Amino acid sequence: MLKIGILALQGAVREHIRQIEELGCEAISVKSVEDLKDINGLVLPGGESTTMRKLLDRYGLLEPIRALADKGIPMFGTCAGLILLAKEIVGYDTPHLGLMEVVVERNSFGRQVDSFEVELSIHGIGEDIPAVFIRAPHIVDAGENVEILAKHEERIVLAREGQFLGCSFHPELTEDSRIMKYFIQMVRENTTVLSH
Question: Is 79 annotated as catalytic?
Fold first, then answer.
């Protein structure tokens, strides 16, 4: 059974666990370096990116997560998780994990009160996929190896670069699990490659 870790420092952790378990995988709440052992994929959920960075530093998780990335472990960042993955954040001198070749702007769809839900057509995943935007970032610029999977109002809101999947919105807050299914397929394919 595939083991998918969810960074469980804050944010919508329970909702991710529910989707992962419904799709037949084991969900591991990651709160320490020990929890990263033997996972096949890692979800970086929404929350508040600055707070999450402080907690990553406090628990010594930043470098171990980068080391997993170096080993090719797939990672899926939603909302604040996308900000953690990005190589560049508008208005900031240094990134957090700095793994995905994208430039991200924080809170680019407005504040909490400006939250909204739309349906998106997502390349390679499907049509009419509900997307919940809460203080969402968006991808301003993407490297040449980044595949753009979805846009909303001409802004990139879902993209993939190899083992990294970055998402502006919260797929876990809906009943539609197609995006998580797509990530789990990434993990499954990667696990097969690593085992050969």
Answer: yes
Please, is 180 exposed, middle or buried when counting C-beta atoms within 10 Å of its C-beta (0-12, 13-18, 19+)?
Answer: buried
Both tokens of 25, joined, read: 């995988």
- To the question of whether residue 135 is assigned a binding role by annotation, the answer is yes
Count helices and strands (H / E) in the chain: 5, 12
Catalytic residue check, 63: no
Q: How confident is the model over 133-182, as pLDDT tens digits?
A: 988 889 999 999 999 999 999 999 999 999 999 999 999 999 999 999 99
Domains by residue range for the chain, with CATH: 3-195 (3.40.50.880)
Q: Is the pLDDT of residue 113 over 70?
A: no
Is 160 labelled as part of a ligand binding site?
no
Is 48 annotated as ligand-binding? yes
**Whole-structure pTM over 0.85, yes or no?**
yes
pLDDT at residue 112, rounded to an integer: 56
Residues 91-102 have pLDDT tens digits of 999 999 999 999
Is 115 annotated in a binding site? The answer is no
**83 phi/psi in degrees, rounded to 5:** -65, -40
User: Is 196 annotated as catalytic?
Assistant: no
User: Among residues 15, 16, 25, 79, which one is catalytic?
Assistant: 79
Task: List the catalytic residue out of 101, 105, 161, 172.
Answer: 172
Alpha-carbon span 158 to 82, nearest angstrom: 9
